[in-house]
Amino acid sequence: MTVYKIALIGDGGVGKTSIRERYLGNGFKAEYLLTVGADFAMRDDTINGFPARYQIWDLAGQQRFDGVREAYYTGCLGALLVYDITRPDSFFNLPKWINELWINNGRGRVPIVVVANKTDLYDLADNTISPSQGREFTQNLSNLTESNGFQCHFIETSAKTGRNIPQAFSLLGTHIPRFIDNHRRIPVLTSCT
Length: 193
Known about the structure:
Elements: E1 2-9, H1 16-23, E2 38-47, E3 50-59, H2 66-73, E4 78-84, H3 88-92, H4 94-104, E5 112-117, H5 131-145, E6 153-156, H6 165-182
Parallel strand pairs: 1-3, 1-4, 4-5, 5-6
Antiparallel strand pairs: 2-3
């Protein structure tokens, strides 16, 4: 079984841990869970009809963990880049996260799915980031990655309701094998030991 190392990245409090927990089938917890440095989980899934294992690294978003995070990026084949639609600052910080990922993973530009999280709050919050803003950002990001043989994608999610959580991972997973095929020099983990 092929193992794909992926990262959940974005500012603290945007819902990365809740997305991971929902994907792992653990449900949603309303309280904020601070990730210290990084947290790790595995899940078996099917990618393009083949069995695969996601090695999911949930990276702390607080600035005080900047130096610690760098080591956890090594070997990442892709990332879910998460922002909170009710916190414009988390959206405007996305370029910082992209640069951190691409500089530290050892592979350069890797596939990204831009995740607009907390969509269950659209009607309850003012000053939200609109879906069109997220799509425009993602299209501009894809313009950078097309020369690397892949495009980035945008998806709206809610960790609270479970909306599009499996689809976000699936969308990323479908593009990682294409990325690997385009960059055959990249070694891929084939076991967990």
